[in-house]
Design brief:
6 helices, 5-stranded antiparallel β-sheet, 224 residues, 9-stranded antiparallel β-sheet, 2 domains, Jelly Rolls, alpha+beta
Length: 224
């Protein structure tokens, strides 16, 4: 699990927040799988409208371009995103995300899930994203504009919202690197490259060797 802070600039966050008031909302169970449908109680936006399409594309493009998302997730495909609204009394009980989503060319394996928070934490009480790991339950409630990426293999839930409204932008990623341990190695290398770039000149043997190592590992491990 990784937290990526300040994914959205203040300008993009402000534009997205204003758009929320213009969206049409529908029962969130519409897109849930058979198991999740029984524990899902929230609303999600109709993103087929003009405003919905605009805000969806703006947020997804921002996520895709973020260097930490690229380095950590190594995205191959993104599932169609959702914007969810969880109000007072609403919740999304413990569930697991569908392992495969979409049809035809849009079909993908869900390796990673992400939640991009659009509401500041003081705007609602409760509503923590709780992720069940082997060792403990991680409780996540981030500032507006920040996101968490976590394995789609983990059980998770949204705690009941006691007051206020919680808005989030969510989607799923099929990584080009199927194995989580291999992704972790590549993420370490990406971070090492940033650090070494401060210590060695561009084109140095050290940086070239590290770039070669990264490229050859990707060549060995990538689905495409």
């Amino acid at each position: 699990m990784i937290v990526v802070e300040n994914v959205l600039s203040p300008e993009v966050l402000s534009e997205a927040t204003k758009a929320l008031a213009e969206l049409r909302w529908e029962d969130g169970r519409k897109t849930a799988g058979a198991t999740a449908r029984r524990v899902k109680q929230n609303q999600q936006a109709d993103l087929t409208s003009r405003t919905g399409t605009k805000v969806r594309d703006m947020l997804l493009d921002t996520v895709k371009r973020h260097p930490v998302v690229e380095a950590y997730a190594r995205p191959l495909k993104f599932a169609p995103p959702l914007i969810s609204r969880t109000g007072a009394g609403d919740t999304y009980g413990l569930h697991i995300d569908n392992p495969v989503m979409g049809k035809g060319d849009a079909r993908l394996r869900t390796d990673l899930s992400f939640t991009l928070f659009l509401s500041p934490p003081e705007a609602y009480e409760g509503g923590e994203l709780e992720i069940e790991t082997v060792f403990r339950t991680e409780s996540v409630k981030l500032p507006a504009g920040s996101m968490v990426i976590y394995p789609s293999t983990e059980l998770h839930r949204v705690a009941p919202v006691i007051s206020g409204e919680r808005y989030v932008f969510v989607s799923w990623i099929q990584s080009a690197i199927r194995d989580a341990a291999q992704r972790a190695i590549l993420f370490d290398i990406a971070n090492l490259k940033v650090g070494l770039a401060r210590a060695f000149p561009a084109g140095s043997a050290e940086l070239l060797t590290l770039a070669k190592t990264e490229a050859n590992l990707i060549r060995m491990w990538a689905d495409a």
